[in-house]
Predict the 3D structure of the following.
Amino acid sequence: MILSDTLLRQTRLHFPSFEEEKVKIAPIEKGGSGRKFYRIQVGREQSIVLVKYTREQAENQRYVEIADFLDEHQVCAPKIHFHDPEEGLIWIEDLGERDLWSHREESWPMRRVFYQSALEEAAKLHRIPLAATDRFQSHLPAQFDTALYLWEQHYFFVHCLDRHFGLDDRKLHEVSRLPRLEEIGRRLGDFPRVLVHRDFQSQNIIVRARQAYLIDFQGMRPGLAEYDLASLLYDPYVELRASERVELRDFYEQQAAAHDPDFAEKFQFCAMQRLMQALGAYGYLGHTQGNKTFLAHIPVALESLGQVVGEIAGLESLHATLLECAAAGA
């Protein structure tokens, strides 16, 4: 209550037109980040969102800079109303609560429109020249290179197969050191990079009036467009049919407006990487951070990873291990 009162006072300080008796604040439950979100309701018609962040993660301080950058390049995202860096507070446009995830039970013809809108925004981001970020590129997090892809793989083996499934040391050593894994990391690291969202999944896409808006974009960095695409199409939070994935993948290729002979290979490898990263994160958040709700997403993500890995030559033993883990549960 004390924190809410303080946030309301600070809001009225920067927005004096808000009448005190009409202003209400309520927390918004949001993901696994270190930020806190609040909805500031002004009367019945007007609202804004307040973000409270700490300086512990540098990416939180990049949020405003990137939001303004996206606005300059006409990528749909929440507009910034005011930023108080001393207090770690950002007041942003309230786009509502309907993210792409919340539409998961609706018919495919309806959801297709939302997914296509999201992919259109992603394609806009991917088309921005890296040179456009010169003024703040040094502030961006580590770009996707071979080292980061190999780190994602290690993250998966440590926090998912070891910590969550308790894979024995001999088997863990065998599958984590498959030469093909390092080959994939190096192959992906060799491709030219574009700007990517980095966490492009259904809960980070708000839908308002059939238009998609990107949120949680503070992890934006140079990488591969296919990583964003795979993040959405193999999203563990929303299960898509194989035919729906193909349809959306084809739609994105049309939006990219350029034929890339390596597209299919990059998409397959990026799907593997993204699912490994997600599974590692679920294990870390669930066991190390104690947020057990994330563990419930492991079975779906593991099944998807098994499907992807099963089609990659040189990873047969890893595929067999994934099937064993899926059968055994945890």
User: Anything to note?
Assistant: The longest strand covers residues 36-42.
